[in-house]
Amino acid sequence: MSLEPFNRLVKLAARAFYDDITTKGDNQPKTGRSDNRGISVVVLDALTRRQWVREEDLAKDLKLHNKQLRRMLRFFEEEKLITRDHRKETAKGAKIFSAAVAATNDFHHTGKEGEEKVKLHTHSYCCLDYAQIYDVVRYRLHRMRKKLKDELENKNTIQEYICPNCSRRYTALDAIRLVTPDDDYFHCENCNGELVAESDKLAAQEAGDGDDNARRRRREKLKSMLQKMEEQLKPLADQLTRVKDLPVPEFGNLQAWEARAHAHARGGLGDGSSNDPSKSSQGYGGTPMPFLGDTKVEVAFGKEEDLKSETASTSLKVLPPWMIKQGMNLSKEQRGEVKEEVKMDGTSTSSTVSDDKKSSVNTDDKRSIQDEYVKAYYAALLKKQQELEEASKKQQELLISNTSNMDSGTSSARQVGMKFKREEDEGDEDVEWEESNVTSNTNENYKVNDLNVQAEPSGGDEDEDDIDWEEG
Amino acid sequence: MFFHITLERNMQLHPRHFGRNLRENLIAKLMKDVEGTCSGRHGFVVAITGIENVGKGLIRDGTGFVTFPVKYRCVVFRPFKGQILEAVVTMVNKMGFFAEAGPVQIFVSNHLIPDDMEFQSGDMPNYTTSDGSVKIQKDSEVRLKLIGTRVDATEIFCIGTIKDDFLGVINDPTTA
Fold first, then answer.
1. A302, A345, B13, B140 — which has fewest CB within 10 A?
2. What is the pLDDT of residues A3-62, one digit of tens each?
């Protein structure tokens, strides 16, 4: 069974329906800082890369507050996107889960052993419920379509009747009082004239032309809305049809999953390498992996882009803004926007993605990257200082030699001086180069883990974004 | 939808009923007064299932009538928008048809009848499909969906639709 199409489904659905969900109540003012819209997308994306996960771990990985994440997850549970499991655990119980995780994924949670020494606590776990998600999304689309179509066809609207004589209006709810035993028609209570249904335009004309126009406008609006909906949700609908015949990935409940993970670990102890998620990025071959490699992300986004270009090639559509947010390389026409905006979008996306990435990378890894960066930075600084010192020394020497050569006045010394000066310049340049190299190196380091980032995030941006996410 | 609820009512009882059958008289009068009535809030009172308690009577000045606060349990029927009902057609005309589901009157206007059904006037007005396989006339049983309710203080009137999946004639009197 393959997870990839289902993960894509989840991602598309998240962007389509849960993009502007905030966990805050409506009464609180939404300031720029505390606006956490889009967080649901991040959470869902993160969940596509996991199976059962302890909520605290997820919160830690996403750099979210526990409470905030839990509120989000509760919302998703109500939306029937995820299943959750709560249980009271001793340190031992918690270990079962950690062991299950560690068994299939050796390097990932190794640093956690010490933390599992918690007393009796209720731990919550959550997991995407793919089968249900598939149904929920289908149902949601069906409801949306049906609602619009019903409106369009006047299906569930209450018929109105007009008396052509006195232009008094009645609704179908008055029908019982309007009916007379002697003929088939409704009669006006005032003048006993025959009523006509309001949709009969010819008869209704004298009663209200403006109303008619309003109705037509409404119809137009509904029609365009329906059309827009079909257009914008096409990727999602396509994905639904693609997923239709695939077997749904099923993790079972928490206990079953843990048991399976254990069994697998025991069976596959010989080939520990196969448990490495980085190597088994493609193969979710029936063996439960609690942590699926980050590489997956790239595949998903890449495909999305492919699909985009497919659809774009057939007809260059203006993409809906919620699709563009994913930071894809699209032509301007496809975006149908001003470039500046696009840029902004790009940064926000990269931050999202990088955040995702970060969450997935082990904290140890992160630390090491940061350490490396710091080390490299200090090394560069040191080097620069040394070279500056050297240069100044040389300059002093030069001065001395110049003064000593002053008497003789030979041009050779000056030439040497010139050379020295040049060297000094070069030295400076060197230092600068070194620095930029360092940063680019770290960027590259970073990219190895984060195959997915298309717009290269600069280090500074990153930090800022991190802070944003933490507070958001 | 049906509900089993507890209601309260102040019953006025004439002094001639006072005696050892006072309670029976009170309950008989309650049933006569309440069953079959309609309140906008609770819907139609279908049946009284039991008396919870009868409070202390209060003699009214001047008349001699006594007021008893009576608490009783009863089954009520309250139609809701979106509810699916089965109803018997009572009248068919050009504007649509009327149907009854117990005490509730429902009107289905002709634009909420599927487009392939056409009105046939005559001795027995009816709505028929072009191939004549489905016919709605007086006494047909139809399943319909309520799309609007008009709730007054003492009456409830509904409008319904049969223009949806699984709605329409469920039992034709002519074929039965």
1. A302
2. 888 888 899 999 888 888 776 555 555 555 566 778 888 889 998 888 888 888 888 888
Q: Which among B35, B38, B45 has a CA at the least distance from the CA of B150?
A: B38
Residue at which a domain ends, from A305, A330, A360: A360
- DSSP code, position B176: -
* A317: three-class secondary structure by DSSP: coil
User: Do B27 and B20 touch, CB atoms closer than 8 A?
Assistant: no
Total domains in the fold of chain A: 3
Q: Which chain A residues are closer than 8 Å to B125 by Cβ?
A: 184
CB B115 within 8 A of CB B88: no
CATH class entry, domain B84-171: mainly beta
Per-residue pLDDT of A379-433, as tens digits, reads: 888 888 888 887 777 777 666 655 555 544 444 444 444 444 444 444 444 444 5
Residue type, B45: V
| A415, part of any domain | yes
- Tell me whether strands A169-171 and A160-162 are parallel, antiparallel or unpaired: antiparallel
The one-letter amino acid at A313 = S
Which residue out of B98, B107, B156 would a mutagenesis test of the A interface target, given it has the greatest number of A Cβ atoms within 10 Å? B107
> How do beta strands B96-101 and B104-109 pair?
antiparallel
Residue whose pair of structure tokens reads 């590259």 in the numeric block: A444
Q: Does the structure's ipTM exceed the value 0.95?
A: no
* Confidence (pLDDT) at A408: 47
**Is A59 in the same domain as A101?**
yes
> Looking at A308, A327, A360, which one is the last position of a domain?
A360
SS3 B107: strand
* CA A414 – CA A193 distance, rounded (Å): 116
* B167: amino acid identity, one letter: L
Backbone angles phi, psi at A82, to 5 degrees: -130, 160
Q: What angle do CA A339, A345, A351 make, to 5 degrees?
A: 145
Other Cβ atoms within 10 Å of B4 Cβ, number: 11
CB contact under 8 A, A159 and B109: yes
Q: Rounded CA gap, A120 and A112, in Å? A: 17
The neighbour count for residue A14, using CB atoms within 10 Å, is 24
Structure tokens belonging to residue A129: 């419920």
Q: How many CA atoms lie within 13 A of B32 on its CB side?
A: 9
Residue A186, beta-bridge partner list: A179
User: Residue A1: its pLDDT value, please?
Assistant: 55
The angle that helices A295-314 and A339-360 make with each other, rounded to 10 degrees, is 150
Residue A447's SS3 state is helix
CB contact under 8 Å between B109 and A176, yes or no, is no
Report residue A37: phi and psi, to 5°.
Answer: -65, 145
A158 touches chain B (CB under 8 A): yes
